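Re: beginner question about structure tokens

> Can someone show what the tokenized structure looks like for a real chain? I only ever see the sequence side.

Sure, here's an example I had lying around. Input first:
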Amino acid sequence: MKKRYALLVAGLMSLVGAVSATPASSDAIPDIPYTRFQLSNGLTVVVHEDHKAPVVAVSIWYHVGSGDEPAGKTGFAHLFEHLMFSGSENRKGTYFQPFELAGATDMNGTTWFDRTNYFETVPTTALDMALWMESDRMGHLLGAIGQKELDTQRGVVQNEKRQGENRPYGRVDENILVNTYPADHPYHHDTIGSMADLDAASLADVKKWFHDYYGAANTTLVLAGDITVAQAKAKATKYFGDIPAGPPVPRQQPWITPLQTSTRGTQHDQVAQVRILRTWIVPQLGTDDAIQLDLATTVLGGGKTSRLYQRLVYQDKLADDVSVGIAPFALASQVQLSVDVRNGVDPAKVEAAIADVWKEFLASGPSDDELARAKVANSAAFIRGVEKVGGSGKAAILAEGQVYRNDPGAYKKDLARAQAATVASVLTASKTWLAKGDYTLTVLPAAPGFDPAAEDKAVVGLGPSGKKPAPILPKPGNYTVATSDVDRAKGVPPVTSFPDLVFPTLQRGKLKNGVEVVLAERHTVPVTQVQLLFDAGYAADQGRKLGTASFTSTLLEESTTSLDSVEVARRKERLGAFVNASCSLDTCAVGLDALNAQLKPSLELFADIVRHPAFKSDDIERIRGQWLAGIAQEKTEPTGLALRTLPPLLYGRNHAYGIPFTGSGTEDAIASLKADDLKAFQRDYLRPDNVRILVAGDTTLAKILPQLDAVFGDWTPPATAIPKKNVGKVAIQAKPRVFLINRTDAPQSLILAGLVAPSTKAKNALDLGIANGAFGGTFTSRLNMNLREEKRWAYGAGSMLSDAQGQRPMLIYAPVQTDKTAESAEEILKEAKAVIAAKPLTDDEVAKIRAQRVRALPGSFETTGAVLGAMTGIVVYDRPDDYVQTLKSRIEGVDRKAAEDALSAVIHPDALTWVIVGDLRKIEAPVRALNLGEVQVIDADGHPVKAASAGKGKPVAAKAAR
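And the corresponding structure tokens:
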């Protein structure tokens, strides 16, 4: 469930109480200038010029989604989206390849209830290629789609469904939809569809769907970035003008179907704690009531200072987390409350407390202060969201307004109405919609041997209402097609030149206490980001209680010695500032994202948070409860299980990296943490002689140094020395090992295989990165093409290199269907053996990744956050200040032999450490039969399972999380 109103971006901030700063203004509505025109064939084109980077976001939205699927065809809109990546008549083969070669970023396709979209951000010089590709699949698809392509993508989609359902709480959406929307409502079923309907999809269905919905008149093309309107008109006409308009598409009509009574359901899952989900059906996107309800849900459950969080988490200590949000759709919306019940608490007590809060809110509505906070949230979050042209940025905002409301600038009206909202208007909408019936789904931990499929099959949803409004057929347009001069027989237009990278020159200075400051000026939006980077990280847990680093960082966001945690949150919200503290393997960082208009008071609050944490017992106990619940949750999720157990096996428990890579530590360690442990970590690592301050944003060195000096310049280090982290060298494993973890009734297995690679600081790090890109690091890599596109056993598979100052892990991963677990592991091993022997990387493979990395550079640093991320890499891995500017030449210098040598030094098939998570009743015997290595069954903590049945295919339960 999306937390915030779709057009206003996520970000939960508020405003309350008397604080030292003036409230951040919510009056100024950001502008995204655009020009809209329509081609003679009915294609709508929206153009936004943004010349800050030499890239263009291409976003194509077809006005059709899962809500348009007829009975018996659930999941087809999404399946068709996958087929659109299978090639077209004039360009056979995977759709991604030309884009990878051109350095495209933010590339994907998605399907939702009311639309299907496809998007990519490309270098300006690759725009013709992108438009040729998009238009070829829009106008010339069917000749390239046969039974093989349909079967391939059907298998991929079914594995995507299994992967989603294999996550904790992964089956709730389907249950909620059938119990909140009538059977004849377009939203009664989820977008992924049913296995049976996916199996039944035919080539005739493909042709009909394409003919009915993929015409030009049902499509919006948005071009945002380094392009002019004149260029956009010429290119759109050239590539899309000859595509037929298609038949008129019946438009589904808004249909709000609030429940008249409160109903309930129960679901069981492999989860660590009870979750209560309560859902109301409310008016559709763009309505005044939906905007009022967005503000109401922020007040009720939009963060730490919200009413429900204060009552359930702080006051009554009944829950670990609570949220309320609105998910706005074109025909109707959902308001959803989600509560993670604290272990040992009776859910009935939670529901009683919710009822109290709800009743009080419906009696009087939000306070003036609460409403003011929600308004600040909208404007501050929106400003941050429009820095990017592609992805979920400006192109998507304009497209959504056009497709759903025939107005690319609809976001302005929404923001204006939100700012004009009153206590009375929010209360009226809340009384109208949140006092009606609702559906409550309670998700309970499942007992061993539970059958989720049988439970789901027994669910009886709402029947048809017989009141569905008839779709309205638009008036026929007087559309004509243009004559095209594009000779598609010549293939994809070559991309022969590429724009240069634009990256700010790093500037350095020092505070009066000697702390180094590194600045990258970025004058795109009036925001400044500051990051305090400490040499610490999970690796600093060595010799301490595991999880200390991350737990201490999290407590920094709670109380200071002068402010309690709620007041800290209120001040952040009032200023429209984000503060985030976190750790990674080698570092801990505390970041500030501040509006320039409030930079001075934001820095003052930021410094108080960093320098004067209180580590109060109430905060520690509250966070401890949430933390332990989080660890328990990790142990129910396949990826969490694997990331907790593999590193100690890979590095050894005495190594600084031999810890759960989630950074969360262990239950015993977290349960024993005391304030003194946190103070000791702060004293040892979070100190001015162990920090560098990175700044990126709309400022200058002359401005920011005095501002930082005012709050950090008098910060002095303790007399004690900074501890030395022991990041020792790990030898290659002498023989392969296989560790199995049971997850009974899992619809998929997760295969994770680990090796140890040289540090990110190594001289051949770029060589290895390019080699890994070809082996498993891109869509068209060997691993993904094998297990996804050829075998159809996985939704995605690949390999990754995690950055580290010491030897870093190389992880091969594949979530695969259960009945192909052993076969998938065998394929992974074959690929690993082949790439260093019989089938080494080719010149073309290396050239492809090399080209992709170089050509993606101009679009990789479009946001302030991306710039700050590059700066972090420069500082942590001792790179030169011009590292980014000179990256192109270094990448171009990597040849096949260098890539091959780097990969061969890391991939040792006979040294792989395998962790496979799945239903051992079904996978243990086949995996053992592979003889990958010595097999051992372990529990969720990595301890051997003492079971006589291990290896006989019988279930071996993982250790229960407490």
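Each token stands for a local structural state, so reading them left to right follows the chain. Residues 147-165 form the longest helix (19 residues).
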